Amino acid sequence: MSNTECATWKLEGALTLYTVETLRPQMMDRLSQRDGLEWDLGKVDACDCAGLQLLCSARKSAMASEISLQIVNPSPAIKTAADGLGLDLSEITKPPTPV
Length: 99
Known about the structure:
Layout: E1 6-15, H1 20-32, E2 36-47, H2 49-64, E3 68-72, H3 76-85, H4 90-93
Parallel strand pairs: 1-2, 2-3
């Protein structure tokens, strides 16, 4: 697979304070290896503000590096966490705009 192809990463399990320290380097490594990446969050079964912050940070880093990151299929756990914080998920799930 070339660096310009889009690959899907299916995240599973928890995206919480207890997992972000481990997930952050994996996420950043995946971003640095591709020009396009899709993160499928449909199997995330727990999420808190630390998990949402990590997603926002990854999206911001991707945009700054002109990497296409598409965050798709937010699970009910992610939607519940976002709603609880008043976060509009469309800010991180909307398709990236061409540069």
